[in-house]
Amino acid sequence: MSGDAQxxxxxQQTGHDDDHAGGHEDGHxxxxxxxxxxxxxxxxxEAGKLGMWLFLATEVxxxxxxxxxxxVTKSNNPELFKWGxxxxxxxxxxxxxxxxxxxxLTMALAVREAQLGRKKRILFFLGMTFLCGGAFMGxxxxxYSKKFHEGLFPGQYFVYENIIDSEEARVHQQEEDLLxxxxxxxxxxxxxxxxxKTRGQVLQPGLPPSGLSSSAREIExxxxxEVHTPGLVIAPSHLPPGPRxxxxxxxxxxxxxxxxxxxxxxxxxMAVMVWLAVLAWQGRFGPxxxxxxxxxxxxxxxxxxIWIYLFPLLYLVE
Amino acid sequence: MxxxxxNVDLLILSSAFLSLIATGVVFNxxxxxxxxxxxxxxxxxxxxxxVILTMLLFLTWLTVAVSYLxxxxxxxxxxxxxxTIKGSLVALYFMHLRWDRPYNAIIFVASLLFLGVFxxxxxxxxxxxxxxxxxxxxxxxxxxxxxTEQG
Lengths: 318, 151
Prior knowledge:
heterodimer; A: Four Helix Bundle (Hemerythrin (Met), subunit A)
């Protein structure tokens, strides 16, 4: 290396001269951040950005493999998604979407402040972005722990059926729904009062006699239901309306692969925010040098962009 | 319309309003700012960014609201269409693609095109195969029963 020092210096010298001749130099010499293989900071910035976009293209294709998993499974097993869709709460999904969109705004503002070189504001907006990422992961934690609690694990760890007798619970819930939605104007028949096995329906005025239920067998075995219901882990209203498909675990493999990989990206993005905040704290960013913030922002926006597609695909589309 | 009003949850609306209020506070501080022309790169004004965020939040609300309606096959089309509009807004304005040199956009669009090729070719003949040639090792389901629920 020491042998190369002399020619490098000479090159830098000529580079200077070229810049002055071309009139691109802004007049106060080289920025300390300019690598010697770039003519100008502008060229360095645009080369860095081009490289970042190449990386983002590989990210798109990385998620593309999982999107392919989703699309092929969905085209072959549409009923699987009709069923699994009911385990995802679109309220949490929508909240997470808005949190990420808002964090994208704060990130864009952090880039702007870096371009203006205002240290305190860069730190503020980077902090906001970090907190939004944390909120996103917090909501993901709530969603995941609910699924783990219900035994909805991916692949071979899927134990949903083993925790509760899901099919029976579903039929039971359908009965309840049916009774609740039957015409309430019907008079309370005396049959209900004389029948002791009607699960306390006598106490609820306005409910139709048990004979109107679609499944008389269910009512007759009312005492058994009392035994089964306490074992129910899932809130009955969250039970899907159809029978469980044989390959139900595949849906949760897709769900955890897609959201898990995305979650890892959010965590990496949060680490990038910390790194950028350290650089900003050292006062490195200004009108002449803001490339790290800009590229970190591009990464964060891409993570947001992927979630924009994940949200409707997993939570909204049946 | 009533279905929408009854079902779109308070949580969604409140988070949207919270983020709007927060942005309002931020922009009240920054409203008198002039956006200069930087030496390189593009600087986006805060007002434009707020407009874009508002559009994104509205589109999120819209796509959630539409999901409560049963439009048959149109549901997927609407959800994907709205997602594409949102994605374009993020890419064009937050990611500065609108003002960048075209190379970055070419790389990005090319990656999406190749993703399309990937998905398209995967979908071409996927219906021609059995779901599995071996019994499910985890659930002990014979192959014949594996796809019985298919429509």
